[in-house]
Design goal:
Layout lengths: L6 E7 L6 H14 L4 E4 L2 E3 L3 E3 L5 E3 H9 L11 E5 L4 E6 L2 E7 H6 L1 H22 L2 E5 L17 H7 L3 E6 L5 H11 L2 H6 E9 L7 H11 L3 E6 L17 E3 L5 E6 L4 E2 L13 E6 L10 E4 L1 E2 L2 H11 L1 H10 L4 E4 L1 H5 L3 E3 L10 E3 L6 E18 L13 E13 L7 E4 L5 E4 L1 E2 L5 E4 L8 H15 L11 H19 L2 H6 L3
Helix pairs in contact: 1-2, 1-13, 6-8
Length: about 500
């Protein structure tokens, strides 16, 4: 490989949710299309949607999506620090893909300087490795760079940009209003040395006639002496891509469905993207439901993962989901749980070290004869899953489903209960996973990305159709990978047409 001098550019925003992540995603694809070896980077992310790298490290799912857009393999150095909220005041810190510890907001301030120094070392080390591999690193900031109270502890915004002399481009969400004031105000609150790094602005999510913006853009240039590099239109196609840490929708799919699927919306829901591909199947509607009344006449009930299984199980009992799910299951409604959802389906959840709650033991839904014990060690690994059988959903043993595990604790099957899958982690060793009920309509698994497998997903839908007395779908399979690639390409094209890419890439470090 020829020696190269790595270039950097950084996307920051006036606030959370302005579209930084989506802009980075588009720029990764645009750069890759131009033949540039490009990598995404986000020093620290806070999200409950995570992914597992090829070597078993855990990173934010948005960074994994950025790596896909860059056409490169995701690695922990692209997102070396990940915060996963467990409660409103407690979060697990993932460092270089592995659990490091749980920290409260108060801990972060009491130990702030020491912890910040440690995090900065991790960030610098990660960037050094990426520099050796890539020609361009596109850095995503977090929140706003103008949070005065957080400035001493910054490891994600200007603290990253300054030593690299990375040109910074500030994104504002014009769809919500106040974007011009946000840009001017953010710039005013930066230190002079930081303002020099800001090379221009990007207005995101615009609807309407761009010419109506001309007076505002002229004012912005006069006031700040910074150019607006682009006005990106509101693009609805992004709904087809998973959101970073919040649902883009609570109802998706066919508005007049043959099959209605209800997903339980836990307070600490995690990896909700596991079920999103189902909404792309013909005749399927996917609904995230917050109360038992909204279960309706759904043809299946899905229990997603959670960052706090015990607390969310208590929530199910408190709001009435507990009895509603058990009642529906007894009447023959299929129920599927993944990860934390699978743990909830068992008879008991044991927590002797109080990792999740003050209770040493919790009663599960009792849908499966299993017991889960929580442990401090965390399993994160890519796997290949083979259905075992015992359920109409799992009868095809020729399926090879590529997914991953992310979980604390282990689940034991009782009374000779059949597993749902065999997991292969090294191509040779096979371990049983999950559990299947006696009637075959209820199963749980630790397999994330299960429904991203096109064959398994279509079979799942067809079993539900058959149970309802409908003919099986004989339409071509929906290829999730192709659909994702198509959406990324379309979004990159939208950004490329509305953003001065040549000017953006012309700024030097």
């Amino acid at each position: 490989m020829k020696r190269h001098r790595t270039r950097f550019l950084m996307i920051q925003g006036t606030a959370s949710g302005v579209g930084k992540s989506r802009i980075v995603e588009a720029l990764c694809r645009i750069s890759s299309d131009r033949g540039i070896r490009v990598a995404p980077f986000k020093a620290q992310n806070m999200a409950l949607n995570s992914a597992v790298t090829w070597d078993g490290g855990e990173i934010g799912r948005s960074t994994a999506q950025h790596a896909l857009a860059a056409r490169t393999r995701a690695q922990v150095e692209m997102n070396p620090l990940l915060l996963k909220p467990k409660t409103d005041t407690l979060a697990q810190l993932i460092v270089m893909g592995k659990p490091y510890g749980d920290f409260t907001a108060a801990d972060n301030f009491r130990k702030a300087l020491k912890l910040t120094r440690f995090k900065r070392q991790i960030v610098r080390k990660s960037l050094k490795k990426l520099v050796r591999q890539f020609e361009l690193v596109i850095i995503e900031g977090a929140g706003s760079p103008a949070e005065i109270n957080l400035r001493p502890f910054d490891i994600v915004n200007m603290d990253v940009a300054k030593p690299l002399r990375a040109p910074v481009f500030l994104v504002a969400d014009i769809d919500k209003g106040g974007s011009i004031a946000s840009l001017v105000g953010t710039l005013a609150l930066l230190r002079p040395s930081e303002r020099k790094l800001v090379k221009g602005f990007i207005l995101n999510k615009f609807r309407g006639d761009k010419s109506l913006l001309d007076p505002a853009l002229s004012f912005l240039h006069r006031e700040t002496e910074k150019p607006v590099l682009g006005v990106i239109p509101f693009y609805r196609g992004l709904d087809r891509l998973a959101e970073e840490d919040a649902l883009a929708y609570e109802v998706a799919g066919d508005p007049n469905p043959d099959i209605d699927i209800a997903v339980i919306y836990h307070p600490h829901i995690a990896n909700f993207t596991d079920f999103s591909p189902l909404a792309m199947e013909p005749g399927v509607r996917l609904r995230y439901v917050r109360t038992p009344e909204h279960l309706g006449d759904s043809n299946a009930i899905l229990l997603p993962g959670t960052k706090n299984t015990s607390d969310d199980l208590m929530h199910l009992r408190k709001v009435g989901f507990f009895q509603a799910i058990v009642s529906r299951a007894k009447k023959g409604t299929p129920v599927v749980g993944i990860c934390g959802g699978y743990q909830m389906m068992g008879k008991k959840l044991l927590d002797p070290s109080h990792l999740e709650s003050e209770a040493s033991e919790s009663e599960g839904l009792g849908l499966l004869e299993t017991e889960t014990i929580f442990r401090s060690d965390k399993r994160t690994t890519p796997v290949v899953a083979i259905p075992v059988g015992g359920s109409p959903f799992l009868m095809n043993k020729n399926f090879r489903i590529y997914g991953y595990e992310i979980h604390h604790g282990s689940t034991k099957r009782l009374d000779h209960l059949r597993p749902a899958f065999q997991f292969a982690t090294d191509g040779k060793t096979k371990t049983p996973d999950g559990a299947v009920s006696q009637n075959g309509l209820i199963f749980g698994t630790y397999l994330h990305d299960l429904f991203s497998d096109d064959l398994f997903r279509r079979n799942f839908v067809n079993v539900l159709r058959e149970k309802k007395g409908l003919a099986a779908l004989n339409l071509p399979l929906v290829n999730i990978r192709e659909e994702t690639e198509k959406t990324v390409d379309e979004w990159a094209s939208v950004v490329a047409k509305n953003l001065d890419i040549s000017q953006l890439l012309s700024f030097k470090n």
